[in-house]
Write a structure and sequence with these properties.
Layout: H1 7-17, E1 21-29, E2 35-44, E3 47-53, H2 62-74, E4 81-84, H3 89-98, E5 101-104, H4 105-110
Parallel strand pairs: 3-4, 4-5
Antiparallel strand pairs: 1-2, 2-3
Helix pairs in contact: 2-3
Length: 111
């Protein structure tokens, strides 16, 4: 079996190895009536989490993390996950306060 070549494939392998059931490209309507797209929905036990994957060369800023947080709250997900290459210090601080898991490509490849 070939090693995964992109960040989404690494993410799929990462969550499956951690025992999560994984759904891809899911659109859910929130309590606000707005539709939200998640790259993955990962489920283990009764814990369901939304995942966004950004394969950006640039640093992910706090606004992206806030947007994921608000979308997750709207569909009643707790502790969303954001995967990208690097995050700003403000993004990390916000994620830490709101229990949002930030993972880098290196984090998911190491597992």
């Amino acid at each position: 079996m070939n090693a995964p070549s992109n960040i989404e494939e690494h993410a799929l392998n990462y969550f499956r190895k951690k025992g999560y059931k994984v759904e891809r490209d899911i659109v859910l309507e929130g309590s606000s009536g707005i539709s939200h797209r998640f790259d993955l929905i990962v489920t283990r036990s009764s814990n369901r989490r939304g995942v966004r994957i950004l394969n950006w060369k640039r640093t992910v800023g706090v606004n992206v993390v806030i947007k994921l947080d608000k979308a997750s709250e709207d569909v009643n997900f707790r502790r969303p996950i954001l995967i990208s290459n690097k995050f700003s210090s403000h993004a990390k601080a916000y994620a830490n306060r709101k229990s949002i898991l930030l993972l880098t490509r290196q984090d998911i490849r190491r597992f």
